[in-house]
Amino acid sequence: MPGLVRKSLDSPEETRPFEDGKGQLQLVNLEEGAVGRATFLPGWRWSEHVKPIAKTESCQASHMGYFVSGRMKVVMDDGEEMEYGPGDFATMAPGHDAWVLGDEACVVIDWQGFADYAKP
Predict the structure, then answer these.
(1) Which fold, 14-110?
(2) How many CB atoms lie within 10 A of CB 73?
(3) Kind of pairing between the strands at 63-69 and 89-92
(4) What is the pLDDT of residues 21-37, one digit of tens each?
(5) Which terminus of the chain is more solvent-facing, meaning fewer CB atoms within 10 Å of its CB: N or C?
(6) How crowded is residue 111: how many other Cβ atoms within 10 Å of its Cβ?
């Protein structure tokens, strides 16, 4: 294993678009796993723009990430809900829906749940 590794989300190794042009996921792959930056545009909702790709009833990814900008509401299958915004660190268990709040893009860096996210 090299002592130093440098990768950039500005030059991702993979880009996965969301349905209807409502954003994208950019990924770099590290030995420890994938790290992604997702840009969710206003009007984005998991159940409308990723569910057709994932083909599951709710998001089954387990997320650990940091909110750079914008706001998002997440609702678990059991009804628990929370809003996230800039500067928030989040963990989310599998089994949730989520959507962008307001008219600003929501940008999230995730180092746990994006390896298979929005992957057909």
Answers:
(1) Jelly Rolls (2.60.120)
(2) 14
(3) antiparallel
(4) 999 999 999 988 999 99
(5) N
(6) 16
With residue 91 as reference, give the H or E element that holds it: strand 89-92
Tokens of 15: 């880009």
* Domain spans in the chain, listed from the N-terminal domain onward: 14-110
The pairing of strands 89-92 and 81-84 is unpaired
Of 34, 13, 15, the closest CA to residue 25 belongs to: 15
SS3 category, 71: strand
Contact 84, 71 (CB under 8 A): yes
Span 75-116, pLDDT tens digits: 999 999 999 999 999 999 999 999 999 999 999 999 998 999
Q: What is the pTM of this model?
A: 0.93
β 14-17/106-110 pair status = unpaired
Whether the CA torsion 58, 59, 62, 63 is positive or negative: it is negative
